């Protein structure tokens, strides 16, 4: 088996992180996790930095910020990995790239995000799955308006 390889390319506003794990599905899942997980960490940092400006900063507030960054990074990365992996898997299995792939991928990503809560409830998991599927499907329709 080939060793995993990685590279990072900075090209203007685009950052391409290519991780070659030897299979396209794994590559997409890890790539989505890394890219969106980093955005989740930046989101948490910006929110907590604003809170630190309004409050007096101390050691525990910085520790909470780092913990929140890690949590949001994992949550956002999980959602991206599940969505990109599921849509790619559906596309390969069905041989078609359409809204149905986005619907299933979005529903599973929404459910996965809901399951990261401290006390996930059945009704909230179902609501998150419906919301995730609806948002992903709408995004797919909007993406294809010009085609």
Furnish the topology, listing elements before pairings.
Layout: E1 5-11, E2 14-20, H1 24-54, H2 59-94, H3 99-114, H4 122-143
Antiparallel strand pairs: 1-2
Helix pairs in contact: 1-2, 2-3, 3-4
Tell me about the biggest sheet?
2 strands, antiparallel
Q: What is the oligomer described by this structure?
A: single chain
User: Count the helices. How many?
Assistant: 4
Low-confidence sequence ranges? none
Cα(first) to Cα(last) distance is: 40 Å
Mean pLDDT, to the nearest integer, reads 86
Helix-strand category:
mainly alpha
- Shape call: globular
User: What is the radius of gyration?
Assistant: 18 Å
Q: What are the key terms here?
A:
single chain; 147 residues; two-stranded antiparallel ribbon; 71% helix; 10% strand; globular
Structure description:
It is a single chain. By secondary structure, this protein is mostly helical. Helix content is 71%, strand content 10%. It has four helices and two strands. The chain has helices at 24-54, 59-94, 99-114, 122-143; strands at residues 5-11, 14-20. A two-stranded antiparallel ribbon has the order 1-2. Strand 1 (5-11) and strand 2 form a beta hairpin. Helix 1 (24-54) packs antiparallel against helix 2. The radius of gyration is 18 Å and the shape is globular. The model has no long low-confidence stretch (mean pLDDT 86).
């Amino acid at each position: 088996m080939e060793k995993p390889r990685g590279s990072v390319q900075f090209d203007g506003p685009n950052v391409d992180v290519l991780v070659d794990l030897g299979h396209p599905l794994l590559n997409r899942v890890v790539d989505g996790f890394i890219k969106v997980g980093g955005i989740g960490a930046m989101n948490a940092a910006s929110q907590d930095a604003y809170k630190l400006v309004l409050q007096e900063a101390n050691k525990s507030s910085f520790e909470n910020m780092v913990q929140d960054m890690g949590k949001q990074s994992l949550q956002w990365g999980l959602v991206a990995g599940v969505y990109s992996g599921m849509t790619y898997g559906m596309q390969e299995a069905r041989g078609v790239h359409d809204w149905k792939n986005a619907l299933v991928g979005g529903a599973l990503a929404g459910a996965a995000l809901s399951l990261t809560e401290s006390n996930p409830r059945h009704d909230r998991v179902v609501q998150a799955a419906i919301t995730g599927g609806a948002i992903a499907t709408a995004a797919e329709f909007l993406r294809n308006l010009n085609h």
